[in-house]
Amino acid sequence: MHADAVVVRPVLPAMIRRLAPLLFLLAFFAAPASAQPSELVFAVTEGVTYQATPKEIRDKFAPIAQVIATATGRRVRTVLVPAYNDLRAGLRTQEFDIAFVHPAHVSMAEIKTGRYKAIAWTTGYTEYTASMITTAGQPLKSMADLKGRTVVTPDPDSITAWMVRAMFRADRIATTDAREPTPSTVRVITTRYQDAVPFYLEYDFAHAGVTAANAVVKSWTEKGGKVLLKSRPVPIKQFIVSTRMAAAEQQRIRDALLNLKEAKGGQAALDTVGYRGFVAPDPEIESAVIAWLGL
User: Fold this and answer.
1) In 10 A of CB 159, how many CB atoms?
2) Which long-range contacts (CB under 8 A, 24 or more apart) does 94-97 make?
């Protein structure tokens, strides 16, 4: 609280001047309760490589916002942040009190800085893998066989593309975006959406493609395509909270999310958001993924 919250001027009557110190103390001690923010800002960022309208996303997360509001007793304002760089900017200044973040590389980068901490992971998305797919006729058997060839990935700032780069880095394989790869490098091209990757293989624009969408992989293999290899798993779709938030409030939100399935109305909320539930984060996995992604 600023010292000038109550201003006492010399021309005030003597009685007011005598009461001024008491008024100051009353203002000082009353301020913290009234200064408590009246709302929490809840940011939602879904992936850039899937197609969904803002209204669909907002409606989907409305029950989760209500869960957070009930757990904290505070109004929750949901903001949709589609652009990853906008999300990064807001997280950098801790503009968001809590965020649901699909792109793990963005959330984990913030966790590494200490500005945010994970409180819940989404069930069914704790072992998200990227699949390297090829046509049946491609004579590829390993990552090394991709040297001198072209690989297509989703959006370069998607978690899938980050995982692909980590795979190449782990195998010490250099990549390039030049028009033609050298015999020792892999040319990487990108397309925005996951479901566009097979198109590049079917029409020989790339020798291999990477997708993390199970539906795309299933459709591809059912048509005779093959999976060359898979990446290590990464947890995506994380709830993170600002470390500025009081620890007790963080815990209330965490408990509400982790116990949502058993709570009254919890299953209906999960049905609306489209997830089976939420689980506690694993710090060891978190640290390993941060290192693997090169954050």
Assistant:
1) 28
2) 94/242, 94/243, 94/244, 95/41, 96/41, 96/42, 96/43, 96/242, 97/40, 97/41, 97/42, 97/241, 97/242, 97/244, 97/245
**Locus of tokens 């940011």:** 43
Which amino acid is present at 220?
W
pLDDT single digits (tens) 243-280: 999 999 999 999 999 999 999 999 999 999 999 999 99
**The CATH classification of domain 131-230, taken from the options 3.40.630.30, 2.40.50.140, 3.40.190.10, 3.90.1300.10:** 3.40.190.10
* Of 212, 235, 36, residue with least CA distance to 119: 235
pLDDT for position 53? 76
Write the CATH number of the domain with boundaries 39-127+235-286.
3.40.190.10
User: What was the pLDDT predicted at 272?
Assistant: 94
Annotated domain spans of the chain: 39-127+235-286, 131-230
* Kind and range of the H or E run holding 178: none
pLDDT in tens, 77-134: 999 999 999 999 999 999 999 999 999 999 999 999 999 999 999 999 999 999 999 9
Report DSSP state, residue 234. Answer: B
Residue-wise pLDDT for 27-81, tens only, equals 444 444 434 458 999 999 986 545 677 788 889 999 999 999 999 999 999 999 9
